[in-house]
Amino acid sequence: MVMSTSHNPNSTLLWLLLSITVILAVSQKILAQNDESKTASARAGAITGRVVNQSGEPVPHATIFIGSPADPTQARSSSTDDNGNFQVSGLDALIYTVSASAATYVPAPRDPDVLPSYYRIGDSVSISLIKGGVITGTVTSSTGEPLVQAGVRAILIRDANGKPPAFGRFVVERSTDDRGVYRIYGLSTGTYIVAAGGRGNVYFSNNPYDTDAPTYAPSSVRDAAMEVNVRAGEETTADIRYRSEQGHTVSGIVNGPLAPNSSANITLAQIVNGVPLASGFSVQVFNRKGFAFYGVADGEYDLIAQSITSPRETIASEPRHVIVKGADISGIELVVRELASIRGRLVLETTTAADCKNKRQPLLSETVLVARRSENNMSKDQLAFPNFFAQSVPDKFGDFALNNLTAGQFKLNARFFAKYWYLRSMIREAPGAPFARTGPVNRQADLALNGITLKFGERIAGVTITLAAGAASLHGRVKQLEGESLPARLALYLVPVEKENAEDVLRFFRTAVQADGRFSVNNLPPGRYWALARWAVESDPQSEAILRAVEEGDTRLKIRRAAEADKNEVEVKPCQNVIDYQLPFQPSAVKN
Questions:
Q1: 133-241 architecture in CATH?
Q2: Which of these, 192, 287, 556, 576, has the minimum number of CB atoms within 10 Å of its CB?
Q3: Nearest Cα to 38, choosing from 351, 467, 365?
Q4: Per-residue pLDDT tens for 40-92?
Q5: Is the model more confident about 433 or about 281?
Q6: For the domain bounded by 248-338, which CATH number is listed?
Q7: What's the whole-number mean pLDDT along residues 547-554?
Q8: C-alpha neighbours within 13 Å on the C-beta side of residue 20
């Protein structure tokens, strides 16, 4: 992940505080050392890799950050050498995320619905960065004089796919020089609006324009702002004629079970057409009572307060909606309380299949469980809330806790390293289920199919995630007809043949087909599948994660019917590796 901040030291400090907050909120320190790791081939090791740009050339002196959801103390930073290579040593046998940052670069685009990539010691990581775009221009007063040291912010309103940014609604800020010129670089591809004046991200500052309402390019309020299209490596100009309009103050107090000597971070997110965009930040420090935002323009906003009470726990307030219209707003009370959590156990289910004998099983210390909020079904009053994601590594008993989650519908997933294992089920036992004479009534909720809906502060327990031995793999090629070529953006879908598995979303797979027709699918539950090669139109799920989403039931049914009509059936047996499966290409069925 690449983060760009202002050169203002106050802004840099705030970014550091926010980064620490995020790391502590999503990281869960492992409760006990996994006994399995004692038998691992190495107790400590290294992760190596290389950082390149979009042309495949090395990116020297890029910053590398390695972190573990199992143990925040395993966090490491390093840098690439002149050839873009890096090595981070002294790592325990855990699961890690790896990211890179470099001046003027941004990460290569990825599907936001796809989980982060996780790595183990001994892995070699390839990271691609692309040149960011640039917005530059001049800020002048109403009389044409340059504004010096005015803060200018680029606010992303739509990403490269034309969608409002789902998460991470931070803005990039720079100051004008003595000519009134600003230059904001390292921007991701997308559509932006540009604003000058107002306090922006920083809650403490002495800039003469802090208390003004922001002026948006070319010289307007937010609703009439000019939209600026940014492309990788390109520069766009957006001049601003400053309006010098007085902004308003939004102030209040944070109450609730704050820990001694702890501060509260307050976010003010602007709401435009029901979607939260730019955010500003303030702090209620531990030895004072109250917070304030200055230079707030007329509009709709959501206020949220958060505070860390322990390395694994965060408390927060529910979003408070306010409308600023021609006057200051004061006396707002934000009451913080516990967030929601999901607790359960990871179970490893073995098999007696002869071909699976002596296959490596997953290490609990190298397994991560993830909860991610679905934005599609979110109520608008919760969209500004940042606690949309949590990850946890199970302890030596398999117990896990996903903490600090907001209200909403969440999708669970598991990432692990074991070729011959698969994700079998994710269920929750209903509390207080009655017992019949013949045994317990079946009141299990299929969390893979239905997700899990959380209320603010709700504590969910009794979740069981099962990994099973016996996974197969399928590797092959889509065969084109003689004289025909494969279309671009071709995807392979696998759907279960057995009708009893028709609603088992964990048996639906989607992977991209390479230009030469090759494809690869791993961690397959044994069984029979219909295989379908389909052109990936914009309305189709662009990832396996989306295909399995709660709201994609009609899509799965449509793909299942198309695959069944093609009648390309393949069966995989426990721990079987199919290495040369040939899937006939059906041009007439590609877009159906």
A1: Sandwich (2.60)
A2: 287
A3: 365
A4: 334 579 999 999 999 999 999 999 999 998 888 889 999 999 999 999 999 99
A5: 281
A6: 2.60.40.1120
A7: 90
A8: 10
